[in-house]
Amino acid sequence: MFNIVKKAVLGLTVFCLMAASVFAAESIVIKGSTTVLPIAQAALEAYMKKNPGVQISLSGGGSGEGIKALIDKTTDIATSSREIKKEEITLAETKGVKPVTHVVAYDAIIPVVHPKNKVTNLSIDQLSQIYQGKITNWKEVGGADLQIVVISRDSSSGTFESWDHFIMKKAKVTPKAQMLASNGAIVTAVSKNRYAIGYLGMGYVNKSLKPLPVDGVKASVETALSKKYPLSRELYMYTDGEPTGEVAKFIAFVKSADGQKIVAKEGFVPLVISKKSKSGKK
């Protein structure tokens, strides 16, 4: 009888320890930009490997959706390929949320076409006219006599808003444009259509696409850092107030030397290089 009670007590103790371990596990929710998605995905995998007691969930949907989730308090970290807007900050503050900015990488938005496209360069003005529907044939910009198929990110995308800032300058995108929800969708659509043009973050450019210089400048780590490439930008993570606990540790990891190696491996521009290149600039 004593042995039975002893085993029962021991079993209960083990169960309680296991339950305590489960309940003690930290969890982090990350939502937002599809541009930042590869960085966040690779970083969370590396972080969880080093910290097996931490669970991290990740989803895309666009920068706007990530910031909305932060405002609604349904995410710990909002990833974004654009800076948070003043009106979003105001709305957040009405709900008791204080967005704090964390720059985690640098990027360049690159116009891309099918590899068979003969065009070798486009100016900002030409890109604007193409996306407004004012230039409709590739022969108008040095290409073959083919109609242009305009492919764009949708309006919830931070990349769309950055494109608007750099290229459109509040002009409307042609209603004939195909509006797609992710960088991956842009890659697929442009790589399969020799008439098409799209744009995406530099980490998504691959051999199935032809990246185009803008105003004669090719996108690269160097030109993105120096801002010589005209479509250079920062990539962000946002938190509600200064992060604490595992959220703070995770963001610190992303910005660490190991985290920035992941940034570079995913095809983006790491902060550690940018700090060296800025020669003491703040």
Pick out its properties.
alpha/beta, 282 residues, disordered C terminus, D-Maltodextrin-Binding Protein, domain 2, 2 domains
Provide a brief overview of the structure.
This protein is of the alpha/beta class. The chain is built from eleven helices and nine strands.
Summarize the structure in words.
This protein has eleven helices and nine strands. The longest helix is centred in the N-terminal third of the chain and has 23 residues, at 2-24. Helix content is 41%, strand content 21%. Strands 1, 2, 3, 4, 5, 6, 7, 8 and 9 form a nine-stranded mixed β-sheet that branches. The chain folds into two domains: 2-106 and 234-277, D-Maltodextrin-Binding Protein, domain 2 (3-Layer(aba) Sandwich); 107-226, D-Maltodextrin-Binding Protein, domain 2 (3-Layer(aba) Sandwich). It has 282 residues and is an alpha/beta fold. Helix 2 (37-50) links the parallel strand 1 and strand 2 (54-61). Helix 3 (63-71) packs parallel to helix 4 and helix 9 crosses helix 10 (257-265).
Number of distinct beta strands: 9
Q: Give the CATH superfamily of the largest domain.
A: Periplasmic binding protein-like II
| Class based on secondary structure composition and strand pairing | alpha/beta
The name CATH uses for the topology of the largest domain is D-Maltodextrin-Binding Protein, domain 2
Number of helices: 11
The percent range for strand residues is 15-25%
Query: The biggest beta sheet, please?
Result: 9 strands, mixed
The CATH architecture term of the largest domain is 3-Layer(aba) Sandwich
Q: Which CATH first-tier class of the largest domain would you pick?
A: Alpha Beta
- Report the span from N to C terminus: 73 Å
Low-confidence stretches: 1-24, 274-282
Percent helix range: 40-55%
Number of domains: 2
Helix/strand order, N-terminal first: HEHEHEHEHEHEHEEHEHHH
Which geometry do the CA atoms define? globular
Average pLDDT number: 89
Give Rg in angstroms.
23 Å
